[in-house]
Design a protein that fits this description.
The chain has about 200 residues and is an all-alpha fold. The protein has helices spanning about 5-30, 30-40, 55-75, 80-90, 95-115, 115-145, 155-175, 175-180, 185-195.
Length: about 200
């Protein structure tokens, strides 16, 4: 009797393997052979699922983005205003090794997105989604009297996104320096400025 293959599960296994390889070896070390070996498959097993490395990278980025969104949803559930902003940012900021590894995937994706319209569109859609959510949390914080700065809510979202994405770059490129920084403290200082 032929073995029944769960194709969705296999795709997820390959994306997870890609995530681990990029985090460990960088984008250049993430060859199709290395990814197949990490996932426990023969090299040719990737082709039916991901004919190119770029497709695999796009899937890995989507996977990281979805994982982050699941954490954000869980941690912001029942929260509003500043508490929701704080929880949202904490799930994106590279505050532990797992989130630093996520940054190591995001950065090569950005590089590829510079010349790939599909990847660029995926990134734009993802960041627009985050911007909308952060702006809504800032609006709720303002309505609750937690934000008094004249800076518009959309600009607050711009600042927070730039802070989070910049922190991902520093964490991925200079992990030793990154861990000497107090990213949580920087976030708290910024949130305090909003109330001033």
């Amino acid at each position: 009797m032929p073995k029944i293959v769960d194709h969705d599960q296999r795709r997820l296994e390959l994306v997870d393997a890609t995530w681990r390889i990029i985090a460990r070896l960088g984008m250049e070390g993430a060859t199709m052979r290395e990814i197949a070996e990490e996932a426990g498959f023969a090299n040719g097993a990737l082709k039916p699922y991901f004919p190119t490395k770029d497709l695999l990278l796009t899937s890995a980025f989507g996977h990281v983005f979805n994982r982050t969104n699941q954490r954000i949803a869980a941690m912001t559930s029942g929260l509003a205003g500043i508490a929701a902003l704080r929880a949202f940012c904490a799930e994106v900021l590279p505050l532990d090794e797992d989130r630093v590894n996520e940054a190591r995937i995001v950065i090569p994706f950005w590089q590829k997105a510079l010349n790939d319209p599909d990847m660029a569109a995926l990134h734009s859609e993802s960041m627009n989604q985050w911007h909308t959510t952060i702006t809504a949390h800032a609006g709720a914080a303002r309505a609750a009297g937690e934000i008094s700065t004249p800076i518009p809510d959309a600009a607050v979202a711009d600042h927070l996104l730039n802070m989070m994405l910049g922190a991902q770059i520093v964490a991925a490129l200079s992990p030793d320096e990154h861990f000497s920084q107090d990213l949580s403290g920087q976030l708290e200082n910024y949130l305090a400025l909003l109330a001033a």
